[in-house]
Write a structure and sequence with these properties.
By secondary structure, this protein is of the alpha/beta class. The protein is built from nine helices and seven strands. The chain has one domain (about 5-225): Rossmann fold. It has helices spanning about 5-15, 15-25, 30-35, 55-65, 80-90, 125-135, 155-170, 175-190, 195-205; strands at about 45-50, 70-75, 95, 110-115, 140-150, 210-215, 220-225. It has a seven-stranded mixed β-sheet, with helices on both faces. The termini are far apart.
Length: about 230
């Protein structure tokens, strides 16, 4: 398989992404529902950024949870953004095509930043720069919460993560060629970091109230807050 960029990979998957993600991500709805349940009750977000919005599944949940908010849906892939636009409309959503490695976000402009299974597409140094950018884009007291794929704290745990994931995919009837597609993409474009490291990086850039809210195999939900 010739190497393709992350943008090209998701451009090609845009029309089928929703079907695929439910087959390949265990407890997909649960992780997003939990994210919304743990947005602090004292936060009434009016402006929200969905970082790596994909086809808009999390965007829709955010719109339902916060009916008075406007969401900025950001993704690298224009094809994916087009699907998100068809799914979420334009009444309370604006769309932004940007690369995580070169984000251009206005300072103090969001009450809440969310992200679902997207940040692992950039390397560890870029993650740390991204966390700093997100912090600066939040208003004082704003919240950053994201669910993503994480490496195990030891090689043995990480290997077991992959075995459990493969068992889940087999039970869901994921064809071998589809599994191989994901593994080749992971080898070329995914950068899994540990929960410990990512919580440390969030603290280092200046976030407070950093916590792990939910975890299942690779998939982990973190939250952090900007000081008031």
């Amino acid at each position: 398989m010739s190497e393709v960029s992350t943008e090209e990979f998701y451009d090609d998957l845009a029309s089928s992404y929703n079907d695929i993600i439910y087959r390949c991500a265990p407890r997909y709805e649960e992780m997003q529902q939990t994210m919304m349940q743990y947005v602090p009750g004292d936060l009434q977000p009016q402006r929200i950024l969905d970082l790596g919005c994909g086809t808009g599944n999390l965007t829709l949940r955010v719109l339902e949870t916060f009916p008075g908010a406007h969401v900025v849906a950001l993704d690298l892939s224009q094809e994916i953004l087009d699907v998100c636009r068809r799914q979420c409309g334009e009444q309370r959503v604006s769309y932004l095509q940007q690369d995580f490695s070169d984000l251009q976000l206005s300072a103090n402009s969001f009450d809440l930043v969310v992200s679902s299974i997207a940040i692992h597409h950039v390397d560890d140094l870029t993650k740390q720069v991204l966390f700093q950018c997100v912090l600066e884009s939040l208003k004082p007291g704003g919240v950053f919460t994201f669910v993503d794929q994480f490496r195990g704290e030891t090689p043995g745990i990480y290997q077991q993560h992959m075995k459990v994931w493969k068992t889940f995919a087999d039970a869901k009837g994921v064809p071998p060629e589809e599994w191989q597609m994901w593994m080749e993409h992971q080898e070329q474009h995914d950068f899994h970091a540990t929960v410990h490291d990512q919580m440390k990086w969030l603290h280092e850039v200046g976030f407070i109230e950093v916590d792990c809210l939910w975890k299942h195999v690779l998939w982990t939900l973190l939250t952090a807050r900007k000081r008031t």
